[in-house]
Fold each of these.
Amino acid sequence: MLTIKAPAKINWFLNVLGLRDDGFHEIQSLMQKITLYDVLTFAPSEELVLETDSMIPVEQNLVYKAALLLKNIYCIDKGAFISLKKNIPIGAGLGGGSSDAASALIGLNQLWSLNLSSEDLCKIAETLGSDVPFFLSGALSFVYGRGEKLMPYAMGKTVNLLLVKPPFPVSTAWAYKEIGNLKFKTLASVNCIKRQISGQVSELTKKANKVDNIEFLINLIEKTEFGEITGTVSNDLELVTIKSFPVISEIKDRLVKQGAIFSLMSGSGPTVFGVFQSAENAENASIAFKDYWTTVAQTIIE
């Protein structure tokens, strides 16, 4: 039996730049894995079976879709028994489904002895979801395109987080549709907004022009010096998600009142994370959010 832990993620910023010709949105984000995990186990079986405590029907679950896709592409005549234990909330902006799908690809690559490369798995991952390739990479990446293109980075120090999620999910598709209606027209070409110069990004967004490059931002995060970036890096999807769910803004403010150095909504929400100087401080702050799902986590640095 093979067991794999599928980590959640946060977005240190998320810039939605415009609507592409293929219907996806062009984005830029700095994404990092965190110590909140779903757990997948794999065992040989004649049939393809997914057993899970998830509320999502099996046929719609990204783990099952990933397994079926891999099986069909490579004409696998074997099955697999897959058990999925959910700890990452569904529809939370933490990438749980995408991480599960990536872990399914990794696990079945081993179980079925396919010996596929990371590049091979990433090509399959792109068809499952924009965030799935990120979970096949390292702990920290600048992601761009529709989210499937990665530029790995390193961080030398973990950061303590308190995650707070109100009792409702938010659909990623809904959030992007709403921000598209609010802000953008179709782009004639997406190439004009891709910015890569010598392995670093020269500009994150027009909003974030005080941040010269990703290394500088990472250095500030490591030092928990958020004063220099607060108000310059942001999550564009907050524009629409907070408009419909103002409690998210209230959670952000309450996190700061409870001692968070920095707070931001992750992904399409509704989860908000706060950065704290210590895990103990984060635990103490969680007492103020008894009506919500909360967990203390750390960034993964590998």
Amino acid sequence: MKFIKRFLLIMLVLGIGTLAFLYWGVYERGVWAGKVLSVSEKGMIFKTHEGKISMESFGALKGTSPIAETRDFSVEKGETEVIKALEDVALKGERVNLHFIKRYASFPWRGDTKYFVVRVEQATQ
């Protein structure tokens, strides 16, 4: 009986530790450069802020047309300054640098993606 209690306690601690790591752990940090296409609030039960950025990459050959790649991202609920900045640049169509973090897992109350924008800065041209 004593062994079962210890085993269950160890499993509970490991489970909580794993969930904490998945929730707060950061897998990647980086910067995307491009134009913000959209920013919206989505969700029926959990309202989250989601967006899309368009990044143009140019071919190695002269005269080739740019290839537009888009990425989806989320913004955490408490980041009101980031949400406001994203809305402003989306309306103006300005080129920006989005500093992001990628988490290990996504949770429905946090956002649709694993990518979270943490800072917006105007791109120098």
Amino acid sequence: MTVVYVDLLWLLNFVANHLLLLGAGRLAGAGLRRWRIALGAALGALYAVALFLPGLGWLSTLPCKLAVAVVMVLCAYGGEVRLWRVLGLFFAASAALAGAVLGFEWLGNTTLTLQSGVLYTQMDLRLLLVVFLACYFVFSLLLRRLGAHTGAELVHMELTFPQRVVSMTALHDTGLSLADPVTNRPVVVAYWRDMAWLLPAGADVARPIECARLCHDRGIHGVRLVPYRAVGVESGMLLAFPTQQVRVNGRDMGSLLLALSPTPVSDGGAYQGLFGGI
């Protein structure tokens, strides 16, 4: 008879669910709210524990499993524009993880198994965490390459700040991956000269760290640094300001960051901003 330790069972499935939900959200370009992701993962872990309680074996049926998965995703990403894509990626990632576990079992590795459809192991948790992180990295890398887009279109954009509302033509490029590292939301990029009124006197966006400090010293709040990569730039930073609201072709996108580029974003001047990932 197999002895199941409830604390280990809950922790293992919490870690797995958290990584699956986080990975699905990142790949789908959805906004990341860590506490909601943790809540969804915790609910899934409680479900895993409930499967082993007396009289609750009926929870292992396929409809129950699907319902719990949907509830987990709703807890983590309910209200997101790309909810259906997150759900699909979550199912795909879960299936891939289950297949990997079954592969380990087939190869004779019995330290990680599926019992009643949930993960269980007696291996060291630190080693297990390393395994999950490695799987998450490989899965993210593969799906990002497979899911890359190159489509682009011109859109009308309105950016609302406390001082004014700015209208511009922007290039929506779904292949552009620049995102807020905290929320995973897309970042709007504009040439700094078009937004010079945001900057204090003497600010130089080509020196983003010094510029951010100057903004802070002048009482300009919410200024952020956004990391980016480009041709010839392995690791750079852009100075970014929070908006109150961004509308794209009349559609409310919520509050996004506006990053200031030290060089023009359009060679021919057909557009004044660009963003991607929606």
